[in-house]
Amino acid sequence: MEPVLSYLRGLLAFDPENPLIFTHLYFWGFFAVVLLGYAVVYKKINARTLYLLAASFFFYYKTSGVFLILLVFTIISDYNWGRAIYKSQVEWKRKLLLAASVSLNLFLLGYFKYAYFVAENISVVTGEEVHFYNHFAHFTNTWLGTDFSVDKLILPIGISFFTFQSLSYTIDLYRRKIEPVKHIYDYGFFVCFFPHLVAGPIVKAHDFIHQIYQPYKLSKVEFGMALFWILNGLGKKIMADYVGVNYVDRIFDNPSYYSGLEVVFGIFGYSLQIYADFSGYTDIAIGIALLLGFRLKTNFLSPYKAVSTSEFWKRWHISLSSWLKEYLYIPLGGNRKGTLGSYLVISLLAFVLVLLSGKWIWLLYFAIGAAIIAIFSYFSEKFRHSVNTNINILLTMLLGGLWHGSSWMFIIWGFLNGVGLMIHKGWERIRPFGDRTVSTPVYRALAILLTLVFISFTRIWFRSPDLHTVDVIFDRIWNHFGGDLWWKILTGYAAVMSVMAIGYAIHWIPESTKQLYRDWFATRSLPLMVAICVCVVFLLYQAVSSDMQPFIYFQF
């Protein structure tokens, strides 16, 4: 009896070395149990919500352990802030309540994600070591028996995702776009529905909450499509791990060991890896949610078919891009105007950069540049409009970079993508080619290639651990390219290069063709569908050469 109990305790306990992820057999056992219970409660809306909330809490506990406390606190806090905002009829009180909700969420996100980063940079600026102390670790060590180091900051998995989802609720209530949820468990379910909890897609309140109160509905075709997305996501994940483990990770871990051409292949390999990994996760999440009767929005739309940086960000991580546009870019002024917030944030960033550089002359340069821009803006409304738009774009992308992690590498990556968007907007105004030229296959192919090259090379900063690695990568490309080695590289890494070629080829299949085979699968008979699933899963797991890697976006 004791061995059985010990085994059950092991199944239910949190294991930091083995978080609960979609590619582990344990998860599918968990999901099978969830479906069995769901078959009993799915017709009763309140029971369904409570049941899935409990399943989601367990899922997050198995993923993040005691950080479940933080998730529960976020739910209780924003549910009550939301009620207060909705009930208040006085505008200044509503604004104050919203500010309190947003500030608390950003404080928690900032503490758990950026406190160590801030302490590190204060040490650089002041020249005196600032000791970081993890108060949350101290609390859990004292009261819950954990053994976290109080000198290190441990990032709760998915905190960026569920914080943004929770923020959307109070903001949407303030804007009167939604009605408040009926019960706190409805709100808890919205925030932590387990398919999208730890790595998205980010769900906005006005897109999801109304589904909580709708009866369960799933057609045969939707059932088939859900299975398709799950299989598609598993296939992408396994391909991503294969390319990453067998090539990309080796390049970025030790770029000085490889020729510039091998490094270039590694850069494009990483673009494929991160797309397949992240979109694979969201494909599985969309499929699982659909089986449970909930519709999550598309998060990726073949982003490497984009002909510009602007189009790329309409196709890549759509839930984050649309969130930033709706809750950050437009409030900052969007394409229309600049705001005091825009100017304050950009000035603060400039000042921080000056402090970190230690060269006060840069402050003079920034001041002169700002004065010149202000003079031109005063005399030219068109110029002022362009400056405001570009400032808002740059700020949005900088903060989008910071959302990904507490590192200047992510901020640089965000800055480069902001510059890319600004250049494209400028190009659109002066483009010497007509619409007819733009629509030609040759132009589109060149534009797609140029966009992919730009996006891939900005990811050098996204993937590299530090600026030294970036310097080494560019040194290998410029000074040790080894163009004559191309055949040896292709044959020496034949398997990986073949997988990469197949991955990009599948990605570039026309959307109409992809829809044909999706629809074909979704309309097959149930026995044939099950047979295909069994065969595909068997073949996919034959391709696994090592333990499945955690999804890349778990770290964000």
Mean pLDDT value: 85
> What percent of residues adopt helix (DSSP H or I)?
over 70%
Q: Counting H and I runs of at least 4 residues, what is the number of helices?
A: 24
Order of helices and strands: HHHHHHHHHHHHHHHHHHHHHHHH
Roughly how many Å apart are the termini? 41 Å
Main sheet properties: none
Overall form: globular
Parts with pLDDT < 50 across at least 5 consecutive residues: none
Number of strands: 0
What percent of residues are in strands? under 5%
Radius of gyration: 25 Å
Would you tell me the structural class of the helices and strands? mainly alpha
Short note summarizing the structure:
The protein is mainly α and about 550 residues long. The protein is about 75% helix and about 0% strand. The chain is globular, with a radius of gyration of 25 Å.
List keywords for this structure.
556 residues, mainly alpha
Describe this structure in words.
It is a single chain. The protein is mainly α and 556 residues long. 73% of the residues lie in helices and 0% in strands. It has 24 helices and no strands. The chain is globular and about 75 Å long. It starts with a helix and ends in a 14-residue tail after the last helix.
